[in-house]
């Protein structure tokens, strides 16, 4: 399996993929996970992370090591990036050394600068605007559980953040219904909702509401994230009373489909956005979801590097 259409491309957001390309990545991820495909990719991956990371850093690293490649951790605190070297200079230099670069940063514009000045594939490993690699794993997990994505209803509860943005766009491409339940002042950006309507395939519907029960009713997937993302820690305490009605607990889960699963992109603040009972319960697929970060990202790198799998 080889997707020549993706070779050399940048993935700065989930909508940089077409529906067919996204489907093929998910299928390839499943084959890599099962061991039916074992491509060799002796390339060098750079990780330039300005934000803390556990799953993204480790899953990208292990994925490349398993492919036979190498990983260089470009922590800004030990590189010239942290001392103010212009991004356009860093991008052009790293382009001469690396085969592919994953960036985790605050501003989406920084990612776009790297993509403009570097020829190698640039992957969004999280910005304040989107988290496309997380959604690849989410979609892979949902498909494992239900055998399809089309027609599935996913309800996301909490802050209308980067994860919510990518989930909406991923749902639009795959024909999933996406319900977003969040306080009125924390809803997803309207530009994301407009883009979703533009790219949405037949059957896709999006609902944005401040009523968590309305959003959850009949859903096959309940999904949550921390109420205050990285960089918003100063507002975390103030957000708690606003977001408490959106906690994923057993009472709320009872309003969902009987076979519903629960997802969380982690790290979790147990007792806030999700209860211990639910994250450790029989409907939780959080650990499968975390594992699938590695498989989905491996499939993405194989595709962007043009490796024949």
Automatic annotation (TrEMBL):
It is found in: Cytoplasm. This is Ornithine carbamoyltransferase, catabolic. Its EC number is 2.1.3.3. Its main location: cytoplasm. GO terms for cellular component: cytoplasm. It comes from the Bacteria. SUPFAM superfamilies: Aspartate/ornithine carbamoyltransferase. The keyword NAD does not apply. L-ornithine binds at residues 162, 225, 229-230. Carbamoyl phosphate binds at residues 53-56, 80, 104, 131-134, 265-266, 293. Keywords: Amino-acid biosynthesis, Arginine biosynthesis, Arginine metabolism, Cytoplasm, Transferase. It holds the Pfam family OTCace_N. Residues 151-303 form the Aspartate/ornithine carbamoyltransferase Asp/Orn-binding domain. It catalyses: carbamoyl phosphate + L-ornithine = L-citrulline + phosphate + H(+). The lineage of its organism: Bacteria, Bacillati, Cyanobacteriota, Cyanophyceae, Oscillatoriophycideae. Belongs to the aspartate/ornithine carbamoyltransferase superfamily. OTCase family. It comes from Rippkaea orientalis (strain PCC 8801 / RF-1).
